[in-house]
Amino acid sequence: MLGLSIRFWRNAVLVGIVASAILPVIPVLIWCFSTGWHFPSLIPDTWTARGWIYVTEPYSRAFPALVNSLLIASVVTLISFPIGIPAARALGLHRFRGKRFIEFLILAPLIVPELPLAIGIHILFIKYGLSNTLLGVMVIHLILVVPYVVLVLAGVFANYGPETEESARTLGASPLQVFFHITLPAIFPGMVVGGLFAFIRSWRTYVFTLIIGGGVVETLPLAVFSFIGEGDNHMSAVLSMLFIAPAVLMLVFTARYLTGERGRGGFVGI
User: Fold this and answer.
1) Which residues contact 31 (CB under 8 A, 6 or more apart)?
2) Least crowded by CB within 10 Å, which of 90, 135, 201, 243?
3) CB of 65 within 8 A of CB of 235?
4) DSSP designation for 37
5) Whole-prediction pTM value?
6) What's the total number of domains in the chain?
7) Helix or strand or coil: residue 214?
8) Coil, strand or helix at 263
9) Are the beta carbons of 218 and 65 closer than 8 angstroms?
């Protein structure tokens, strides 16, 4: 009886979580194919596919913005690994003087409010010619996503035993062989989880992209807010669905690493 009660409440909580995630999206889905939806009408007055046709047009702002967002988020996520893995290994496996201060510095981009941080970095980027460039936007996104990768992988390394690496070196394995055959398979689930958070953080970044990119580098969040500012609910909904889709797909493909044996070791350590 107790088992049935626990299962019932667990399923109820799960249904509640799923409903809270799906229900807010339903009006957006309706707006994707409608216009002129006014209170107290339960359904829109008119239906249209204008937004979807616009997205496929060669002059559309949506497709270049989508490509820019995918390019920036993908490149930044990949670059964050060679930066984040050594830092995470040091924090997860070793104790040393100043460790807490290093942890604070790594977490600083997540603690400091976005607007003053973006303005301060923008001044430096103007000086070094990175303002209003794709490279500058990638660099600022990298500053934002590396802490997520370090946080996740530091937890993985905190539960990682380096003895197998030492045995492999004793048997004559090179550093690259040790990394690719021993270290990488062990930390790969953590890399997937860290990569998911890094991709989503870069994908949804608006303030930093607007200030550093100066409107020259347009990503999907900028395009969405542009149409929202114009009061075009239909186009805003269409672009919002394009904005949601890649993040949802990433979550679906990496969900098995978030729980269970594959995802064990995630946020423990720092």
Assistant:
1) 37, 44, 233, 234, 236, 237
2) 135
3) no
4) -
5) 0.82
6) 1
7) coil
8) coil
9) yes
- Nearest-angstrom CA–CA distance, 257 and 268: 15
Spell out the residues 6+ positions from residue 96 whose beta carbon is closer than 8 angstroms to its own.
90
Q: How many CA atoms lie within 13 A of 44 on its CB side?
A: 16
Cα three-residue angle 204-206-129, rounded to 5 degrees: 120
Burial class (CB in 10 A: 0-12, 13-18, 19+), 191: buried
Please check whether residue 237 lies inside any domain of the structure.
yes
Give the bridge partners for 35, in sequence order. Answer: 46
Residue 232 inside a domain? The answer is: yes
Angle CA(220)–CA(240)–CA(147) in degrees, nearest 5?
Answer: 55
Q: What CATH number did the domain enclosing 205 receive?
A: 1.10.3720.10
Which residue shows structure tokens 């006014």? 38
- Mean of per-residue pLDDT scores for the chain: 83
Domain hosting 116: range is 60-257
| Residue 264 is assigned to a structural domain of this protein | no
pLDDT band of 259, cuts 50, 70, 90: low
Report in angstroms the alpha-carbon separations of 266 from 21, 70, 123, 155, 259: 23, 25, 36, 5, 9
C-alpha–C-alpha distance, residues 43 and 141, integer Å: 40
- Residue 175 included in any domain: yes
Question: CB atoms < 10 A from the CB of 254, how many?
Answer: 18
What long-range pairs does 213-218 form, CB within 8 A, spacing at least 24? 213/132, 213/133, 213/134, 213/136, 213/137, 214/131, 214/132, 216/132, 216/133, 217/68, 217/132, 217/133, 217/134, 217/136, 217/137, 218/61, 218/64, 218/65, 218/68
168-226 pLDDT, tens per residue? 888 888 888 888 888 888 889 889 989 989 999 999 899 999 999 988 899 999 988 88
